[in-house]
């Protein structure tokens, strides 16, 4: 696959980790405090990130350390933050 430009962030993409978590919670459709791949996909698509579904799978591979299909603890969210910074070009500040 030869994608030259795989993503496009048009919304404000600078936030603190706390804001990032709050933003994520907005996509926690069933309000169970965990982020599933589907919820993550919606979050990515809301940023108009291309191939949101594909990227959501990549993120889960990287960040879902206990492989339970959800991002549900601080370590996993931390990984997600790192992924977003490195691969989604989001600027997330540690305060
Ligand atoms: Ca997990």
Automatic annotation (TrEMBL):
Family annotation (SUPFAM superfamilies): EF-hand
Q: Does the keyword Calcium apply?
A: yes
Q: Where is the EF-hand domain?
A: 15-50
Q: Which SMART domains match?
A: EFh (SM00054)
Which UniProt keywords are present, listed alphabetically?
A: Calcium, Repeat
Q: Which Pfam families match?
A: EF-hand_5
Residues in a coiled coil are none
Question: Matching InterPro entries, A to Z?
Answer: Centrin_CML-like, EF-hand-dom_pair, EF_Hand_1_Ca_BS, EF_hand_dom
Extract the signal peptide range: none
Annotated GO molecular function terms are: calcium ion binding
Which protein, by its recorded name, is this? Calcium-binding protein CML18
Species source reads Actinidia chinensis var. chinensis
At the highest ranks, the source species' classification is: Eukaryota, Viridiplantae, Streptophyta, Embryophyta, Tracheophyta
């Amino acid at each position: 696959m030869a994608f030259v430009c795989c993503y496009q962030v048009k919304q404000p993409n600078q936030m603190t980790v706390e804001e990032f978590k709050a933003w994520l919670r907005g996509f926690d459709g069933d309000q169970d405090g965990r982020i599933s791949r589907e919820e993550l996909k919606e979050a990515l698509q809301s940023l108009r990130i291309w191939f949101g579904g594909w990227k959501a799978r990549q993120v889960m591979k990287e960040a879902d350390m206990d492989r339970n299909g959800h991002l549900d603890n601080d370590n996993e969210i931390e990984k997600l933050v790192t992924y977003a910074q490195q691969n989604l070009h989001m600027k997330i500040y540690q305060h």
